[in-house]
Amino acid sequence: MNRFFQEIRLWVTAIRFYAHSGSLLPVALGSVYAWYVTEQFYWGRFLLALLAAALYHAGCNLINDYYDDITGRDRPGTYGGSGVLQRGEMSRRKMIAGIVVLFLLGSLVGLWLAWVSGPIILWLGLLGLLASIYYSVSKYSAKATALGEPVVFLVMGVAMTIGGYVVQTGTVTWPVVWISLPMSFLVTAILTANNIRDLADDRDSGIKTIAILFGTDRSRRVFDAIVFASYPIALLLVWARLAPWAILIVFLTLPMAFKLHRLVWRYRGEKHEELKDAPAETAKLHMAYNVLMSAGIWVGHWV
């Protein structure tokens, strides 16, 4: 029994479950917004959509770990990945098996959702699968060619939120696209913080990121821009009557945003140890903003 729990802990570490709020919360936001618009909510579809998102996200993380290991991007002393391959806790063959199982299960759940919600969810699932592969695989991957941020913005932000909406309604509307934008910016900020932190390691590995192309100072300005953009967007959503005034509760997270600003701008040179907590702190902001925005939409339905 002890060995069983050790195996579970190993897989939880490998899939980096702590980071799954980046995929689960946008799905939840999309579904809550669908309820706000239609006054209908299907709990079964919602829970299965969360499951599919978690399975695909886990598979994507394993692919990323696998290819970063075989290319030498992840190695002792770097912060990338889960580290289970570098520490010898899991074999590459075992990780490949995990990738296949996770994507197979996620696809099966997605097929059922497509059956009950319509074909749009099938196309979104296919986009997620292809993006998971394209993000990490080959020297022309999004991660290696400074396209990581655009891919994350579109898939982990826009597409995930739309997916949560589609499983409830079977349709896509422009308002849900606009609703997804704050989450899209904030989830992208997580990657930007990661890339600023890992600038020296990534450059040594021969890959290109926005942080490498722009340099540390410009990258920090990009980080500030995409973090703080989420707040005027909330105002515009209320002004355009696409969301209730109650979503302005997200402004309670502004102190977290300013704390991140100070953390990132304390970074000097290329000693990534100084920014080791920046991605996790950005993820906390993403989580808090998303939870408050979803709560604001829910409250706005009643008041």
Envelope shape = globular
Order of helices and strands: HHHHHHHHHHHHH
Structural class: mainly alpha
As for the number of domains, it is: 1
Main sheet properties = none
Oligomer: single chain
CATH architecture: Orthogonal Bundle
**Helical fraction:** over 70%
Weakly predicted, low-confidence segments: none
**Total helix count?**
13
Describe it for me?
With 303 residues, the protein is mainly alpha-helical. It has a single domain (2-302), classed as Farnesyl Diphosphate Synthase (Orthogonal Bundle). Helices cover 73% and strands 0% of the residues. The protein contains 13 helices and no strands. It has helices at residues 2-15, 21-38, 43-70, 92-117, 120-136, 148-169, 174-197, 199-205, 210-214, 216-228, 230-239, 254-265, 278-302. The longest helix has 28 residues, at 43-70. The chain is globular and about 55 Å long. The model has no long low-confidence stretch (mean pLDDT 90).
